[in-house]
Amino acid sequence: MNAIYIAINKKTDNKYADVRFAEARFTGDAATVKIVCSKHDYEKYRALMPELNALVAAECRFNCTVKTELLPSDPSAETLYACVSEYMKKFPYLATAADSMETDVARVKLKLHKAMYELAKKDSLPRLEEYLKNRFVEDIRLEIERVDFGDMRESETPTHINKNYALRSLANVIGNIDASSAMSAAGVDGNAENLVVCGIFTMATSFMSKSDGVKASRPYEKCVLYDGEHTLQCRYFPRDGGTLIHPELLNKPVCVVGTSEVARGRGGETSMLIRSLAECSADGLIPVPAPQPRDYKKIKPQPYEEYVQTSLFQTSVGELPKELKGSFTVFDFETTGLSIFYDKPTEIGAVKVVDGVITETFSTLIDPQRPIPPEVSEKTGITDDMVKGKPKISEVLADFYKFSYGSALVGHNISFDFPFLLKFGNRAGFTFGDRRTFDTMGMAPRAIHGIESVSLDSVLNKLGMVNDNAHRALSDALMTAKAFIAMTKIIYAEK
User: Fold this and answer.
1) Candidates 230, 246, 449, 471; catalytic one
2) Which SS3 state, helix, strand or coil, does residue 36 take?
3) pTM for this prediction
4) Active site residue 160
5) DSSP 8-state code for residue 266
6) Pairing outcome for strands 20-27 and 30-37
7) What band does 440 get if pLDDT is binned at 50, 70 and 90?
8) Distance from the first to the final alpha carbon of the chain
């Protein structure tokens, strides 16, 4: 396209020097040439499109119909992130650089291992610079930081990892906190005592531990603190009437005091056992606002019909526990691995439950823009070829936000799936931190007395159900929804 751009400007005495020829795409018997101009010049060039279309058609000499499409240049952080991520699909060895990418208005920053940089500087980086010049009228600043292998985990860590928040207006909810500052939720690392931590309060969820021999089940609660990018898992064992279940605190800044420890089986993630919690104001900690949902763009829900669901789950005709009234979205992610630091979703499945009845489904594969480990593909059946060309997580979450808007969120082991929803939802500008959450894994010991394993398959087995397509997101979400309906009726029928 550069040669065509130069030829047209030579013919027109640089009349179109302020536009960019982004790309040409061929569909069927037509070619569409995308042309970019600044926002304030959009109307000017739109009036010139018939002339420009004729010039492009003459210079391209494609053996097909040529169309032009005028687009305003948008060098926003979100657009740059999507644009560079798309470019990097051509270079699989740059996957870790995509993970560490930081974007701002007209700026892209990448972290590359030194050996990777030596490889990229001769080919892929110059081509990336040219790629950005062709897609944006504005000058895009490309910054490269060279790092060692030992620094690669830090590339996934926000720049404010050691930031201390100045606290104001503390209002104690559990216990007593008297502090003027607190560390970021993302800064908690390893085992430590008496930490004062601040973050946005989300995923306040009730749990029940499974019984172990003579040991009785014990109620406890979970929540997640997040700083807009990273999350901190927290547990609380209620005492003296204290509880985390305060819906009015969701998506608001809180301060907690407690003990941190490295969690098992989550890629080195640190969790926290808290003993005190207070609502607060914290300088620089701002919740993501909840936008109104837009129209569906990529993924649309499908109606769900199953003739046996009423007879299977109804305890008696016309009876519905008030705890099942309303809207619930039951969801499940399949991912490239277990780490919230490194891994990405490969599939989402969700079902809508309204007044105890499953009404709709929502599902799609997701392109994680990185290879799926063979052991993960073996477990889920999801391969690199299956996700190639599928929507990116930012596109999927825009539609999932609409699908789940106004619903409480339900999952089986939701403390695994919900942080992915928070992290990537925040990046895409959609908050899920203001939702009520429920976990069927935590409900199981309460509904099924003496249950030894709280895996989804075990819970379903105890309820007389079978998951015919385990480890695929929609099937897991559907069966989790059925378990949620059944166990809610069991639990609240006992009252």
Assistant:
1) 471
2) strand
3) 0.67
4) no
5) S
6) antiparallel
7) very high
8) 71
